[in-house]
Amino acid sequence: MTQPLTAEQWNSRHPVGTPVIAYPGIRPEYAAEIRTTDYPRLETVTRSRAWNLGPEPVVMVDGYAGGISLEHVDLRPTCTPMDLFVGPEICLDRECDQYMTDGGEDTGIDQCSHLRQEQACETHSVEVDAGRFDPAAPWPCPHTVRDRPQSSAIVRATALEG
Ligand SMILES: [Zn+2]
Ligand SMILES: [Zn+2]
């Protein structure tokens, strides 16, 4: 593991609202070691600057009450959209009927009608081969956590009624 950041280093690099994955209990590496999958994992954003709690730098995140050790907080890569062609393997390999005439000649088409273009999240799709993703994460990506939870929307709605 890399050397953990001090609170000062963290604050100079990662402003409040930074997307993170927080492990308030145990880290996944340790969970694997003791053969458990039962540990809390939060995909969230920071909601405070880091500070030193005794010898340990901690930070607060949305969805959790106390400070969490920086050692238990990983940066969460932000989601990026990409365009993908989706369809049967044979079509992705350019081996279906439409790419070849009966005489075995290349028809010269770019892509067959069995493929459709879709958007996917590049960050959360699993690349199994160069340029090939399985599974592809949908876009908008479910991993994208809104900057603020819905409570602000409720506040706004109530304010309008008043
Ligand atoms: Zn994503
Ligand atoms: Zn095809």
Description:
With 162 residues, the protein is α+β, with helices and mostly antiparallel strands. It folds into two domains: 7-75, no CATH class; 81-138, no CATH class. It contains four helices and eleven strands; from the N terminus they run αβαββββββαββββα. A three-stranded antiparallel β-sheet has the order 2-1-6, with no helix packed on it. Strands 3-4-5 form a three-stranded antiparallel β-sheet, with no helix packed on it. The chain has a three-stranded antiparallel β-sheet with strand order 7-8-11, with no helix packed on it. A hairpin with an 8-residue loop joins strand 4 and strand 5. The protein is elongated. The protein starts with 6 loop residues before the first helix and ends with a helix. The structure holds zinc ion (2 copies). One zinc ion is lined by residues 91, 96, 98, 112, 114.
Give a short summary of the structure:
The protein has helices at 7-13, 28-33, 89-92, 151-161, and strands spanning 19-22, 42-45, 51-53, 56-59, 68-69, 73-75, 81-86, 116-121, 127-129, 132-133, 137-138.
